[in-house]
Design goal:
Layout: E1 2-6, H1 15-27, E2 31-37, E3 46-47, E4 50-55, H2 61-77, E5 83-86, H3 92-102, E6 106-110, H4 114-117, H5 126-144, E7 149-152, H6 155-160, E8 167-169, E9 193-197, H7 206-216, E10 221-225, H8 231-237, E11 246-248, H9 254-261, E12 266-269, H10 275-278, H11 283-290, E13 295-298, H12 301-310, E14 313-316, H13 321-333, H14 335-351, H15 355-379
Parallel strand pairs: 1-2, 1-5, 2-4, 5-6, 6-7, 7-8, 9-10, 9-12, 10-11, 12-13, 13-14
Antiparallel strand pairs: 3-4
Helix pairs in contact: 1-15, 2-3, 7-13, 11-14
Length: 380
């Protein structure tokens, strides 16, 4: 089986696309290719049995939507494959052209509900967001009915495509043991160290995190591992009183992330209560749990249904730094109970929230589409 994955947005080493999906299929002996925009020096030719093809990086968001998307889909169409699997809504129209050109099935991987995501895009004029969300949603609905398979990252997203005959939920859970502690590592946790891993932005709570540090006191520190939304936001945050308690680490590879998580006392995931966030299942929540780290998380109903049954963390109001600070103080003053939360989160990942449980659903979809395509070819 030959799989060609293409994206106009994500990096070559994206955790879901390369780290989980592509590597899992390649391990089975399948031929896997990824088409991705990037600098020539930054994109490898081959890694862990996965072959990479590079498109030019976009010069702007609009350039990416209207030019890079077309270039990525065209390049993908030149790579022989049994299935073409794409990951961005802007690729939908181009994927239908690819399907017609190659005669092969195409699969749409839906990471977010785009209708809920667009209204939160600050780079769009406020007056335009409602109309753009409606237009993009209509295009997505039209094209999604014509793709051969849909992979939804969450059950909430899957409900939107419930009428599609081949829609499967493949949740973005970590590998069961990728972030687990090595012998003795859990004893190295640094008192007062909290951690946030991922994109650093306003709507993911960076200002509230830093303000909470100052309220909590000098014993609390925050390690940030990720890229800033903008340098303007970083400059703004650097003027907050709690900034002196922040340790910036930049983008880290997976092993460095694992080591960082085993230094910390708790992991923060404090998304703002926006439409696209409330029903999301952030990767970092499960990665913290996988590393045996207690979580301090936004008190959304869906997140509560994960954290409370597992007894793996504390839920707070993400817009109230005082609420976040109270949770930080609790972690600092109850180290034994916090460690127990971490162990219970780790157990929940071992039993339920792991990639090994999700991957067979993707493989079944691939197999069904390949078999269906072969039957059509034989009938013709």
């Amino acid at each position: 089986m030959r799989i060609c994955i293409f994206t106009s947005v994500h990096s070559w080493n994206d955790t879901r696309i390369y780290g989980r999906m592509a590597r899992s299929v390649a391990r089975l002996g399948c031929e896997v290719s990824i088409v991705v925009p990037g600098e020539e020096s930054a994109v490898p030719a081959c890694r862990n049995g996965v072959f990479f093809y590079r498109a030019t990086l976009p010069k702007s968001r609009w350039n990416r939507i209207f030019k890079t998307a077309s270039a990525v889909a065209h390049l993908a169409s030149t790579i022989p494959a049994d299935i073409y699997h794409f990951h961005d809504p802007e690729l939908l129209p181009w994927s239908l052209k690819l399907r017609k050109k190659t005669g092969r099935p195409v699969v749409y991987d839906v990471h977010e509900d785009v209708r809920l995501q667009v209204p939160d895009k600050e780079w769009l004029p406020r007056w335009s967001r409602h109309w753009i969300a409606r237009i993009v949603g209509w295009i997505e609905d039209y094209c999604a009915k014509r793709v051969d398979g849909i992979v939804a990252a969450t059950p909430a997203i899957a409900r939107r495509f419930a009428d599609h005959p081949r829609c499967v939920v493949v949740q973005n859970f970590p590998w069961r043991d990728e972030l687990a502690a090595w012998p003795g590592e859990n004893s190295r946790r640094e008192p007062g160290l909290f951690v946030y891993v991922g994109g650093i932005s306003k709507i993911r709570g960076i200002r509230e995190m830093i303000t909470a540090l100052e309220i909590t006191g000098p014993e609390a520190r925050l390690a940030l591992a990720g890229q800033w939304e903008s340098q303007a936001l970083r400059a703004e945050c650097s003027r907050l009183p709690g900034w002196s308690q922040v340790e910036e680490l930049g983008f880290l590879d997976r092993e460095a992330v694992r080591q960082l998580l085993h230094r910390a006392q708790a992991g923060l995931v404090l998304f703002h209560p926006l439409g696209n966030h409330v029903e999301s299942q952030p990767n970092k929540l499960f990665e913290y749990m996988s590393a045996g780290l207690p979580v301090i998380a936004s008190d959304f109903p869906l997140w509560r249904s994960i954290v409370e049954p597992a007894h793996c963390g504390l839920l707070v109001h993400p817009l109230e730094p005082a609420s976040i600070a109270a949770a930080m103080r609790w972690i600092l003053s109850h180290p034994e109970e916090a460690r127990a939360m971490g162990r219970q989160g780790r157990q929940a990942v071992e039993e339920q929230y792991h990639w090994e449980k999700e991957f067979p659903k993707l493989l079944d979809l691939y197999s069904a589409l390949v078999n269906q395509s072969r039957k059509y070819a034989q009938a013709a």
